[in-house]
Design brief:
alpha+beta; iron ion binding; NifU family SUF system FeS assembly protein; NIF_FeS_clus_asmbl_NifU_N; globular
Length: 146
């Protein structure tokens, strides 16, 4: 597939997650909730996780922001559910490497997350893309410190 067609496909995936976000909403029985924002552009996320043992059983988010930020939150919540905290942290590390343009292992088996690899070409958007992933990391570390 040509790089132009791949870029177009990736834009479609991002817009699909933005317009039809997965896991958007409250999670009344969450045991970890984190609120974070990106003061540079005004993106904000309220992440709700239900962690059972060391597994992320459910993940939902609310908030507002640009298409990159909200699509990334949708993709992140889809990706981490069913994984252990350790696996989710590794996924976040790989995601960060990807959006910074570094070599990386695949982030997840879903594949949608790879659509955000083009963010590396726009350094100002990296914080938009990583906001939800940083919120997930913070949620796990806060849960562990209790």
């Amino acid at each position: 597939m040509s790089s132009r067609k791949l870029d177009q496909l990736y834009r479609q995936v991002i817009m699909d997650h933005y317009k039809n976000p997965r896991n958007k909403g409250e999670l009344p029985d969450s045991n970890v909730t984190i609120d974070m924002n990106n003061p540079t552009c005004g993106d904000e996320i309220h992440l709700h996780l239900k962690i059972e043992g060391d597994k992320i059983a459910e993940a939902k988010f609310t908030g507002s922001g640009c298409s990159i930020s909200m699509a990334s939150a949708s993709m992140m919540t889809e990706s981490v559910v069913g994984h252990t905290e350790k696996e989710a942290l590794l996924m976040s590390k790989r995601f960060s490497e990807m959006v910074q343009g570094h070599e990386h292992e695949p982030v997840d088996e879903n594949g949608d997350v790879e659509a955000l690899s083009g963010v590396a070409k726009f350094p100002a958007r990296i914080k938009c893309a990583t906001l939800s992933w940083k919120a997930m990391e913070k949620a796990i570390y806060e849960k562990e410190s209790r």
